[in-house]
Amino acid sequence: MSWRTITWFGDSMLLIPTAILIALILPWKSDDRRTLWCWIAAFGLAGLIVSISKILFMGFGIGSARFNFTGFSGHSAMSATLWPVMLWLLSGRLPAFWRGAAVTIGYMVPLLVGASRLVLHAHSKSEVAAGLLLGFTLSTLFLLSQRHTQLKGFSLPQLSAALILPLILTGHGRIAPTQNFLEYLSANIAGLEKPWTRADLLKQRQTGYQSFE
């Protein structure tokens, strides 16, 4: 499995439809009506915080040259929010050991996604670390809030139906244009001809050092 394949497990083209799928399944499988709203709040908050951090940088240059930080890694944050919950949902009626193993896998997948973003030079260490921290915090808070929730199990046909959309999207492999959209949005909000880039941030830092010297 290549790093580009692994990084796909954090792409919005896969995660957003899967998050919607989880939202559709939860009222059917959970005995707590609040479960759905907790999930919408967790995933929605992850997306909102990531988007705001990127708009602040690309539109207004708000970042950290010292830590090479231009905003939360969306792949890291969104995958860390989704996969622990997805595996929790699918393993709802399994024995405690196997359910724990499934949720652990849910926590491991985002770590691999974060590593792939570093290998592919898509993000800095600070951006990946911040994204994982954000996502794991939200997914863990969700799981803690649902520790007394009883889930109905999946039959084999139901499990196949639940997995078919993510599998189709994985096979399709198209990347979501979210970064391009946020660049366009940020520039328009700030009234810029083009959005801020990492190169601009690092150049500003070098210029500052030269002025200080």
TrEMBL record:
Pfam families: PAP2. The keyword Mitochondrion does not apply. It comes from Mixta tenebrionis. It comes from the Bacteria. Residues 15-143 form the Phosphatidic acid phosphatase type 2/haloperoxidase domain. The chain crosses the membrane at residues 6-26, 38-60, 72-90, 97-116, 128-145. Keywords: Membrane, Transmembrane, Transmembrane helix. InterPro entries: PAP2/HPO, PAP2/HPO_sf. This is Phosphatase PAP2 family protein. SMART domains: acidPPc.
